[in-house]
Write a structure and sequence with these properties.
This protein is an all-alpha fold. It has one domain. Helices cover 70% and strands 0% of the residues. The chain is built from three helices and no strands. The radius of gyration is 28 Å and the shape is elongated. The relative contact order is 0.05.
């Protein structure tokens, strides 16, 4: 059974443009996903950030949350002190 009417020019244009945009999005996703050098660099940067943050905590005698609230609440034991 046929629908009874042909798509209008606006509908055909919409379908074509939507298909082109979706294919463009697919190509962008696939080309961005497979960059091992950028992924490795990003991973190394994140690891170095964590290590630097840990070094600051150890250097200043800080503890991680939620225990830092107990440390700050003790009288005479402020972070800048």
């Amino acid at each position: 059974m046929r629908c009874g009417h042909a798509p209008t020019a606006a509908q055909a244009t919409y379908i074509i443009l939507t298909t082109i945009l979706l294919l463009n999005l697919l190509v962008a996703i696939l080309s961005n996903r497979y960059r091992p050098d950028d992924l490795e660099a990003d991973t190394q940067m994140r690891i170095s950030r964590v290590v630097d943050y840990y070094d600051v905590q150890v250097e200043h005698g800080l503890v991680c949350s939620p225990f830092c609230l107990v440390q700050v609440s003790e009288p005479g034991h402020w972070i800048g002190h």
